[in-house]
Structure formats: C-alpha cells, structure tokens
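Listing S7. Sequence submitted for prediction.
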Amino acid sequence: MRILLVEDHKTIGPEMVTTLTAMEHVRDVHLARSKAMGVQALEDAFYDLLILDLGLPLTDDDADQAVEHGQDLFVIAQETCPGLPIIVLTGSTTTAWGERLGRFGHNVDLWGSGAPSNTVDYIRKEDVEDLYREVERMSAEVAAVNAIRINTRGKRLDLHPGWERAIRIAARKLGGVNAELSPLSGGLSRVRVFLVKVFDGAGARIATLAAKLGDRQEVAKEIAAYDRHVQRLPVGTFPHRTETLELGLCGKGAIFYRLADDYRSTLFDAIAEDPQGAVRVIERLKGNMQIWIDAATVQPRSIAEIRRHILWDEEFEAIKAAHGLEVDDIETMTVDVRIGCVHGDLHGGNVLIADPPDAVIIDFGDVGETSLCLDPVTLELCAVFHPAGAAKGLIADLSSYFAAWPDVDALPATDFGAYLRACREWAYDVGHDDLSVLATAYAYAVRQLRFDTVNKAQTLQLVQTLAQALRAAR
C-alpha cells in the first residue's frame, strides 16, 4: 500500500511515518508538510490512501497554518483522484464542514472483495489507534488486489497504475488470480482496449473480457453511448457490459465487457488470413447495424461539418499549416449526406471474430450521429492506415491504390480486393450519393495526418485525389 500523509507537525508526522511503514502491507509512506507539496505528490504518483491534517501551511516555507488549506487539498484530491480513500485526521473540534464530510464520499466496493468501504472518514488525532487499525484493514485489501498477477506475454504495455488496479479488481471479483492481457486497439488515442483472459488458481480460464481503459471522462462518454445507442442493436452483436470502475483509480476509468471464449481474433487477422471470411464479416456487420441505418435521414452538410466529427478545427488548422494543404474550397462545399448513428471508429481491431461471419463490435466511445459512410470507409482504409493493418502489407503499391481510389473498378482483382470492394459497396449503399462517400473518405484521410505512424506523402496523395474528385463533381 502506498500512503500520502499530509501533516505539518515536525514530530507527529515522522512518528506516524515510522508506525505506518512498520505495518505488514504498507510499502511506502510519502510525507508532505503543506498544501502545495500535497498537491504535487498527488500529481506525481498513484496512492492508495490519503491521510490529511486539515491545519496546513500553504507552502513548506510558510509558517502560518489554515484549515482552509487542508480543505482545499481535500477538494483537489476528490476532483483529481475520485474515490481515493481519504482519512481526515485533526485535533480540532468537529466543525460544520467536518460534519458534512460524509456527503463527499462513497460507500463502495473499492477493491473487489464484495465488502463496501467508505472513501471518506474523519478521525481525531487523540484516536490515532483507530486510524492505524483502519490502515491495517485497508492495506490488507490492497495487498489482496495487488496479488492478482497481470501477464502480458512479454509485451511492454505501459499501463497506468490506475488501469492495472482496475484489471486486478475485475479479475478478483470473478475469483481470478491471474489476468492475461492482449492489446486489441489503442495506442493512437487516449484510450486502450485489451482482451483480458482471467484464470483461477488451478490455471483454468474462468472469463474472457474486453477491457476499455481510459480517463474517467472517456469511460463516462462510452457508458452514455452504450446505453443510448449500442443496446438498440440486435442481441449478440455487441458484448454485455459487466463491470464499470471509476473510483480509486487516480482519475482513470475502465469498462469490462464479457465475451465468449471463442472470440480469439480480430478482423485484421481475418483480412490477412481469410479475406473471403472477412467479406462475410462485413456483410454481417452491415446487417447488424441495419436498425441504425434505417433511422438515418438525408441532410445537407458542409464537408467541414463531416470532417469536424472526427477531427477538430484546431487540429485541422495545424495539419493544414504543416503540410501546406489548400482545401478551403473543399471544406465549404455542401453535400447531401445520410446522417445516422455510426460506431465512429470501426477499424479491424474493434471487430472481434469467432468463426466468420460471427463477430461482435467493441469500443463505443465514438458512437454518435454523422455520415453513415464513416463506418464502411473506416473498415476499408484501416487496412492500410492503422498500424495493425499496415503491418500486414496487403497492398504492395499504395500509390496506385490511392491515385485511383474514387474508381471502384480499379480495386485489386484479388481476395483482398474483394474485401475492399465489400466495404466500398456498403459505403455506396448507405451514402446518399457518390459525393457523400468522397466527402467522408476525404475527412478520414485528412485525420490520418494526425498520426506519426502513417506515410505522410502517401496520405497527402489520397487527400489530394479525393479533393480533386470532389472539385470535379461540383
């Protein structure tokens, strides 16, 4: 257990550090003596517990104490690390503010044991033995969580400590002792998606999960999209949400979805190994999303509005300046587009496959309303732009492919070409006309210039090809 102790008393603070570090499951106690150092400590590291004296100086060099400084630090901890257990330790008489402390906390199962705990408690300094007993209880819970092993099969995943904690809690709730992680998508954005296999003490797999890890705000966004849009899709086309964790993770969050054990590959794998099977998956996905398609309406949209759904203006202007893009005339064009609900980031890593065409979609943080062409355009172009697709090397001559992109008859006459054609036909089926497909592909291509993983010269070639096709169609 890692504890942040904020106590300015020159004797009491070090004495408490000595007592706390002697406990069996306490690994580290960091002592801060002021509000400023407490704030800095919260920014620098992940803590399992905050012990806070309310009477604090503003800085280490400030001799004047004020209860307001401790109260401010309490609020900052609540905002930056929601659910971080806080024990307010004070020698002062209980104030009206102190009596209201319980309103700021939660009574939740923070460590996956099934037993709820308060996230905020108030203990007087003269009752410090009560504090030590509570820390011993909490540290044993933290030790049980930390005992859950996370295996990555030798891959360096660079997980935030809050995400590691969430994975361990989810595994513990299922009775697991070991969680094996495989990346599904992420690394290009603020979120990560993993396949998580949970094993018991005998080595038997007891659950297979898809884990969406991100900032707490990203998790809240995904929950809203899942509840409003995703659950309208047919049963079996998306996984069931089993766990949402947002507290005690230092501002991070996690959503876990239950999968059948036979979902063992992604659409990227199928594109490379079984392109005809990938074609069947595309056909199945389109059918699964028919309820979204049927609810769409044709609306006029500027191409800037279509692009803005996946690339904000500030980023777009930076890309224009960096690459000398002259596309203002394209951005102001108005096209008629079928606007409806889409997944919004439907690349191959977000499509999990058992046996084609059986597939489920995951990662719902970008679900929302925009051009219906976005999903099939993403499914096509992710095969050459997304790192997991580009690594397959499925198109030897990208320049020729990009130069002829508006001409569907120029697609390769190969099994992989059949996959590309299936995606393109889906785009034309749901797009109002050819312009809506070109406009959506233009927006997607411009967005790729955000990423260092793409070949910028080839990406610019595709952007210019699509811009020329749009100009010619005016």
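Caption to Listing S7: primary sequence and predicted structure tokens for the chain studied. The longest helix spans residues 128-146. The chain has three domains: 2-145, 149-259, 265-473.
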